[in-house]
Amino acid sequence: MDATVSTGTEDSVWGGGNRPLGASYGKMMMWFFIMSDALTFSGFLVAYGFSRFKFIELWPIADEVFTHVPFFHGNYPMYYVAFMTFILIMSSVTMVLAVDAGHKLKQNKVILYMFLTIIGGAIFVGSQAWEWATFIKGDYGAVETNSGRILQFVNAETGERAALADFAKTLPEERVKHQANEGIWFQEEGYRTSYSLNEVVEGFKATPNILIRTEQLNEEGEKTVLDRKESLAKILEANQVVEGANLIHNEYGHRLFADFFFFITGFHGFHVFSGVIINIIIFLNVILGTYERRGHYEMVEKVGLYWHFVDLVWVFVFTFFYLV
Amino acid sequence: MAHEHKLEIFRGLLKFKSNTQKIWGVLIFLAVVTTIEVALGIVKPRALTHSHFLGMKLLNWIFIILTLVKAYYIAWDFMHLRDEKTSLRRVIVWTPVFLICYLIFILLFEADYIYNVYKEGFITWNF
Fold this sequence. Notes:
The complex is a heterodimer. Chain A has helices spanning 25-54, 62-65, 79-103, 107-137, 164-167, 197-206, 228-234, 255-288, 290-294, 298-323; strands at 142-145, 150-155, 210-217, 223-225, 238-242.
């Protein structure tokens, strides 16, 4: 009577139909993606840490680099980045609210919250573009030495940073930007600084209250300022003027700082941008009622996971780039 | 899809009535932590920048710990890992944690070694 072998799945681990992780296929794959992406970002951030530990005594101080707020003049370290962080966290919140409304099958609420999320993402990407533009433009200008170190200038009386324009002389020298059509095809000058090296050096010699600030961090964790005699000796090592930052030169300090800034915030910004695009697609689908007909809003939940991940990465980028 | 929500945070210290309420509660918490971070970053109290633990400034340790706290609440409440099965949660959390710790360990030690070679070895690189 009981000779038949039980094929019931309810008490057999191997009978199939088990859901050990309790997640649907799509959600599982989103988690796979997030985890691999998390490892990519950690690779970048740890590489940043590597370079920083390698040049621990000369690394730029982030507070002195990111000091601008749009429409305001003056020195406001961190405020704008903090604002960007709040925007991203807020858009994360509207995203969870959209997911929550999706669970309750409230289409109109999902539409509203998705819309707010997209707006938040757009503000963030815009802020990041502005931050890049400010960083590339630079503010005070500096000179680079033969070994690639950056020398900045400070006013001896106030202790404030001095811009090149404050002391550089305008010399009657002709300097033409090198164009490709005037040389061999691959020789084109990338950018031209507003003062030549000679003008900066002569101006420096003629202005006694300007001192040189090196990249070296002192005991107090501040950049070392040389006295006038040392400064005059140091300026002879300069071999070019640097204004702003790009992948090769960086007026704020070590060039790797600029490289990692462009690379990591750029990669994150690209994630936010693609997140906004995906959000828009899902937003349109919600409006069209695709998920209403499907009977569940799991797509909103999945795109939400991605969006929160982008926020999560920013929390780390914020700490390691701007705070630490 | 996990439809039931666990509505407690801080190990049951704070209980919310609905999921929506919990989301706002977590937002307030994250905002407070970020404000503390930014305030410390601007003020830079001397007591924290001049004391070290394991070769790093105490202030930096605080930043990193607060970041991990924020990461925990984003993952647990926004990415609703709190409502997922324990097995899924463990797979998601411990795999990257293990790999990232390994990576940090290797690269930072190597970087410190190179720093010492530059500093004490017979290499002129700042000329």
